[in-house]
Amino acid sequence: MPPAGVIALVPDEWGIHWMGRHETLTRLARHFPTVWVNPARGWRDAWLPSRGVAVPHQEPAPENPDFMVYEASRWLPRVHRPAAAVRFTERRRLLRARRLLRDRGCEQVVLYLLRPEYATALDLLPHDVSCYAIRDEYSFSEIERPLDPLEAALIARVDQVFISSRVMLERKGAINPHTLWTPNGVDFTAYATPAAEPVDMREIPHPRIGYIGWIKEQIDLPLLLTLAQRHREWSFVLVGPARASGEDAVVLEALRGLPNVHVLGARPHASLPGYFQHVDVSVMPYRPTAYTKYIDPLKLRQGLASGRPVVGSPIPGAMDFKDVVVMASTPDEWSMAIEAALAPSAMLPARVSARQGVAKAHDWGGLVDRIASEISTRLASR
């Protein structure tokens, strides 16, 4: 087949916070030259100075010349009207991203969409294969909603669909016959290889109860506050960027005020294995909502790969791992589950090996190989 490259339309700028799409696309670039297309900025952001806005930590691009990040120039900002200008600027951005692939010798183009709103690209850029990756419930609703007809139309139209959540597969997997379940994974070697204790954890007393990930509305912050108040003998370590508003913001501030709670903030992706390995228990305190029903948590596999005990809420994405993850719902159940996870027996070699064995079966390398294989099959069929 003629050489092919991937144009990935993603909802966030490269490198601000590492997620599953970063893991997937950087590895996909080992199979096909891949362009990560940063969302275009509005004309005000493109042309006006930032006025001292703090720049978040930026993850470095991988050392692979076949992985490229396309940033639209200020001459091609995101506009909202008129419709002709919207189409013109979007098409010009897509053509410039395609030029990066042409410079790599790619004759075929794979459009890889990560949000329903990018469906317009299918009509604006000639391509050979189109893919839609469903890695989240994109309505982001906490109550169950009917399937968006626009998303259903996109699923039916593309050549290949990838779905990360088994429950999501049950909901949307029958629309397109070319649908593959591709769950989240873990960089097993990175998380299982012993890492140095992070400097900012060295003064935190054991036992350490760690939550490592986004601190956002899906996390049960009142539960964490209850546990931290109830168990002053435990140190609660929260690592990750925070996005809390309303009552959650009040609860987060209350957590910050407790002497046994340590809110460390966002940390570079490469340092996260050290945080997972140097807590005593990793926790996933999700609120049970229509949104969390469909998530497939990255931190679950990361915690298991570290070998440490994992305690989580009984959301569907965790229930597949109930043999190696302890489930808890009420504060009393959480207290008992964490106490059991802190027992010496939880770190017996056989139990550590069981956790890491499950994680190793979900290494990103094999998962992305399957994605690349499906894309190659669709290219060959065209």
Characterize the structure shown:
- This protein has 382 residues and is α/β, with parallel strands linked by helices.
- It has two domains: 4-185 and 363-381, Glycogen Phosphorylase B (Rossmann fold, 3-Layer(aba) Sandwich), CATH 3.40.50.2000; 188-360, Glycogen Phosphorylase B (Rossmann fold).
- Helix content is 37%, strand content 15%.
- The chain is built from 15 helices and 13 strands.
- It has helices spanning 20-28, 43-47, 83-103, 121-124, 149-157, 166-172, 188-192, 221-230, 246-256, 272-277, 298-306, 316-319, 331-341, 349-360, 364-381; strands spanning 4-9, 34-37, 67-70, 108-113, 129-134, 160-163, 179-181, 208-212, 235-239, 261-265, 281-284, 310-312, 325-327.
- The protein has a seven-stranded parallel sheet with strand order 3-2-1-4-5-6-7, sandwiched between helices. Strands 10-9-8-11-12-13 form a six-stranded parallel sheet, sandwiched between helices.
- α4 (121-124) links the parallel β4 (108-113) and β5 (129-134).
- The protein is globular.
- Residues 51-55 have low confidence and may be disordered.
